[in-house]
Amino acid sequence: MIKVKQFVFNPFGVNTYVVWDSTTREALVVDPGMTSAAETQEFDKYISDNELTVKQIVNTHLHLDHCFGDNYVRDRYGVKVSANVADAPLGEGLGMQARNFGMILPAGADKGVTIDVPLKEGDVITFGDEKMYVIEVAGHSPGGIALYCPTGSFAIVGDSIFRGSIGRTDLPGGDHATLIANLRNKILTLPDGTRLLPGHNGSTTVADEKATNPFVR
Q1: What confidence category does residue 96 fall into, taking pLDDT thresholds of 50, 70 and 90?
Q2: Which residue(s) pair with 205 in the sheet?
Q3: Strand order in 117-118's β-sheet?
């Protein structure tokens, strides 16, 4: 049985997800966004309390708020970072991203994020007896992806779509028309009952967004 734990981390309020198989207790960490000792302790306690084995980091994209904690998780748990290579420059330029937002990060915290495992459309990520399927949804960022889990009837969609809204496309590498096309053709074609777990705020469903989201109707 698949389980999903949602944390809300860092000043941007990013959703970090731990997705795990309750039988094998193998886990994926999606968009680790921890920026403080308190946040890393909260994360580590959940991993320890549930006796999870972290298998991989997956980034829906590499905007700074979604990857602040990548290097911590990689080093602490000895795992690899996976993302779409079109976002590699964003990860490598983490410090510059922070400066563009007027943020001063602690020494070493602005170290760039390097992709160890490149992900592309149709890739399958396996942990325990569970699988998640990679869907490319560029537009918010050049390498944005979603992770679809048919057995759990949910998709982790990063900042591509929110309840009644979509991800901003005015950041470097964003493209409004590309995002809308990908949402209409790839995300809103999933089964209506699929829960959409976004990078910020609460979840929604495919059916709700098809019926009410003004950006994709």
Answers
A1: confident
A2: 195
A3: 2-9, 14-21, 26-30, 53-58, 81-83, 117-118
Q: Decide: helix, strand or coil at residue 9.
A: strand
Q: What is the mean pLDDT of residues 15-29?
A: 98
Nearest to 163 by CA among 120, 137, 202, 136: 202
In sequence order, the β-bridge partners of residue 21 are 2
Structure tokens at 59: 């980034």
Q: Which residue has the tokens 């609460």?
A: 202
3-state helix, strand, coil in the chain (%, to 5): 25, 30, 45
Give the residue carrying structure tokens 């390498």: 143
Report whether 180 contacts 215 (CB < 8 A): yes
DSSP state of 160: S
Query: In this structure, which amino acid lies at residue 154?
Result: F
Q: Has this prediction a pTM greater than 0.90? A: yes
End-to-end CA distance of the chain, in Å? 34
Helix or strand holding residue 161 (H, E): strand 161-162
Please report the pLDDT score of residue 108 as a whole number: 62
How much is the pLDDT for 102?
A: 85
Strands 53-58 and 81-83: what pairing?
Answer: parallel
71's tokens: 């290097």
